[in-house]
Amino acid sequence: MAFEDLLEDPVIQKYLHELVGPKGMPVAAAPPDGEVTDEELAEELDLELNDVRRALFILYENDLATYRRLRDEDSGWLTYLWTFEYDNIPENLEDEMYRLHEALEERREYERNHEFYLCEICSIRFEFGEAMDFGFECPECGSPLESMDNDRLVNAMDDRLDALEDELNLEA
Question: Could you list the residue ranges forming a coiled coil in this record (predicted)?
C-alpha cells in the first residue's frame, strides 16, 4: 500500500498521531520518497529540529523508519539519512490489537474477582481491603463508602473483547 493510501485512512492517522504526538505529526504525515536528513525535514516542514528528531526516533522504534549513517570524512560529523517504512503499519496495528485484547482480559478478570466501594461525593473507588482499612469511610471527605456494582463495566469489556476477537479471528 502506498504512503498516500495509508495516510488517508483515519485509523492510521490516529495511530501515527498517538505515536508521535501533535508536534511530530507533520513529520509522520509527510513521508518523502527516498532518503532524507532530519535537517531537510525540519526546514521543509518549518519545524524545530528536536521535534523532527523526536518523531523520527519514535517512528524508528516502531519499525516505521530506518536510517543510514554517513560520516563526513573531513569533519567527522555523522549524517543520518532517513527512510520511511510504512508497510509495517498494518502489522503494528494488529500487534496493538493483540496487546489490547490481552490487557482487557486481565482487567476484566480483575474487575470480576474484586469487590469495590465508591465514595459518591469524591468519585473515588476503593477495593474491599482499602475500604475496610478506612472503616468504609472516604479518607478525603469522610462520607460513607457504598458497595459498587461494576457489572456495566465488565459487560462493556466483554463487548469490546468480543469485537476484538471478531476482528482478530480469535476463538472465544
Answer: 93-120
